[in-house]
Write a structure and sequence with these properties.
28% of the residues lie in helices and 27% in strands. The protein is globular, with a radius of gyration of 16 Å. A 7-stranded mixed beta sheet has the order 1-2-3-4-5-7-6, with helices on both faces. It has a single domain, classed as Gcn5-related N-acetyltransferase (GNAT) (Aminopeptidase, 3-Layer(aba) Sandwich), CATH 3.40.630. The longest helix is centred in the N-terminal third of the chain and has 20 residues. It contains 4 helices and 7 strands, in the order E-H-H-E-E-E-H-E-H-E-E. By secondary structure, the chain is an alpha+beta fold.
Length: 185
């Protein structure tokens, strides 16, 4: 990674549209890297992740821009449960032109620093995103705990049925958890 410090800044209203476009581009880049130009893993309008999904995540969570030396290099959305401290990483993306430079890992360390009271972090990623699976398990310390698919649907899916036979390309999502070490007083 470059020597520039990675910071997280809250998403502003005037950056929301760019955040959505950047997120869609990063997700589409990953799918095209895996499957090539023809891709059956689309939600809407030729996108891997729909505008509706991103907007729901932003509206229900806390969105941040990932910056390196002040320059925007990605973004993330968290859903924080102050009562249970079982928190969710809803979205995380790094601009493809700066992949493999440690930015995602540094951003994740910053999330953990900002939310030290978290007991468990949870996130999901599509089965085909080998890069993400590697990132969450090998770089960030998550564990795969569940595999959602046609035989085992996600009971918390905000859009139930959205990934059944109507969407032939859907073959599943991995759910990851990371239990955080709690200091005992």
């Amino acid at each position: 990674m470059n020597d520039s410090i990675i910071t997280l800044t809250p998403l502003t209203a005037d950056d929301r549209e760019a955040f959505i476009r950047d997120n869609q581009y990063a997700f589409k880049f990953g799918a095209m890297e895996e499957f090539g130009q023809r891709d059956d893993h689309l939600e809407e309008d030729g996108e891997i992740i729909s505008r509706k999904t991103i907007e729901r995540c932003i509206d229900e969570g806390e969105a941040y821009r990932i910056r390196q030396g002040g320059k925007i290099v990605g973004g993330l959305v968290l859903k924080i449960d102050k009562k249970t401290q079982h928190n969710h990483l809803e979205l995380l993306f790094v601009t493809p032109s700066v992949h493999s430079k440690g930015i995602g890992q540094a951003a994740w360390r910053e999330v953990e620093r900002l939310y030290p009271e978290t007991r468990v972090w949870e996130t999901c990623t599509p089965y085909f995103e080998k890069r993400n699976i590697h990132f969450y398990i090998n770089k960030c310390g998550f564990h795969a705990v569940e595999f959602f698919n046609a035989f085992h649907p996600d009971p918390h899916d905000p859009e139930p049925g959205a990934h059944d036979d109507a969407e032939e390309g859907f073959e599943g999502m991995f759910r990851f958890e990371k239990e955080m070490k709690q200091s005992h007083n």
